Structures are given as structure tokens and as C-alpha cells.
Fold:
Amino acid sequence: MSLKRLEQLLQISRRPLISTVVLNRNRVRLLRLTVESYLATVQVPYELIIVDSASSDESRQFIETICRKDRRHSTILLDENIGGGEAINLGLRSARGRYLHISENDIQYLAGWDRELLSKFDTFPELGQLSPMSPDPPEGEVAWRRPASSITRGNSTIWLVEP
Structure:
């Protein structure tokens, strides 16, 4: 996405460009890696919403520390585990961003991830959903391989995964 396009989007609204919802339950070590890499790499206006499903480890202390540091960070602390889908929906209901981003709590973000995803939405405006995960993960990674076909426009390629 060009800087000019980003500035236009910001002028339209003061809301975050990306709302990221991270679901967590008793995985403080992985959550810490995910959140720290996210915060170190996100370059566009964002908000971070962490939904915790009744963790009994040190997750809540870490989450509260992150939320105290920046008004763009918030949390939903659940008293019981209501299931991933419902918990994510709670986070999405409070999201204010133009783009909604659901993140696992075991992802390490790399520099440029946010601009690359936004660029793909700019290049492929018909998209309603986009995953940054490859349909053909590198050897050794735990993931399901799914049949997919690529579509390229300019310098941007997306993969359509078969149902």
C-alpha cells in the first residue's frame, strides 16, 4: 500500500487501520513472543485486543502489563473458557479498525507483515478475508497442506485455497 493511500485512509477516520484480536489460554510464553514481535513490527495505526479464556498461568499479569503501557492495547478477561470462536467474536465486537485481524498466540511477526497484507487488500479489493499463512508451509513446520492456486496482479500474489 502506498504512503499516499495510507494517509488518505487516515484522513477518512481517526480509528485504527488494523484491529488485531489475539486469543489466549494458558500460553504466556508463546503469547509474550507473539505480542512482542507484533509490537516491534506493526507500522500502521492499530489496536491490539487480547482475549484471555480463564488462564491460570501468568498470562493475565503479562496482558495487564501490556495494556497499561499503551491506550491502543485492551483486554477481555473471561472467567471461563467459552471456546475459541465465541471468544474471538467478543474481541471482534469491540474492534474499531477498518481491517479486522485475528491472530493466533503462537505467531512470530516479521517486519513488513502489516503493509504487505494491506497492500494485498488494496490490490485485490474483492477479498473479504486473507490469511498471512502459506497454503504450502516450509518443510518441518507443523501445518496442513491444502491444494491452492495462485493469482498474481502486478507484484502481488495471493493463494486461493480449495475448500
The chain has two domains: 3-122, 133-163. Residues 133-163 form one domain.
